[in-house]
Design brief:
Layout: H1 3-18, H2 25-32, E1 36-41, H3 50-63, E2 72-77, H4 85-103, E3 124-126, E4 129-136, E5 150-156, H5 157-165, H6 169-184, H7 221-227
Length: 228
Amino acid sequence: MTANAQKTALAEFDRLLEGDSFPCFMGVTAHRRGQVSHVFAGAMACPADDARLARDIAAFANAQKPEDTFRSLVVHFVGGAPMAEEAFEKLLFRRLQGIHDIDRGEHDWDPAVSDDPDDPAFSMSIGGKGFYVVGLHPGASRPGRRLAHAALVFNLHAQFEFLRQEGRYDRLKSAIIDQDIERNGSSNPMLAVHGSTSEARQYSGRNNTGEWQCPFAPRSMSHMRKTA
């Protein structure tokens, strides 16, 4: 991947976060403070970078502390044509599956979160740490998720738990919803089900409030030992 392609991807990301439609001021704060890390991969449909991404995400996870709030890692997928939301969602979970299949050989699932994608306590786990994943792509129906190329943002679950313990989480979440309504005319309907259904429904940004089966099958390192 060329330096120019990476530079273009970063400029597109800058425009999204500094634009009028992006509602998450926590992300904007992290961006302006230089607390967002970036890694790059080829087209999202290609699994060639899964092993490197697994290592990079695990390294990021284990370099952070719960109190290091407003820090994120963005995986930019450079190349590939824009796609509809359903196709993006399939590729999102295909990449998470590929990354997990590599990561499970080195790390167990974070015991602080569930490994069942149908469980309301589920979070994606890489490097032994839970993550909330946010998908961005050109075909997103929510303007705040509409990036000129496909990308996945990884936010550590421990950050949100730290904010809850500090009594700040609910206030910040309400402020983000208010921003979304002000900037985009309505709030993200998926936020309304947070805590009552699996957060996996929210990863792609598609409205998944109806019947939905998560296309992801976790398999922990301990499970590998038992079946080896």
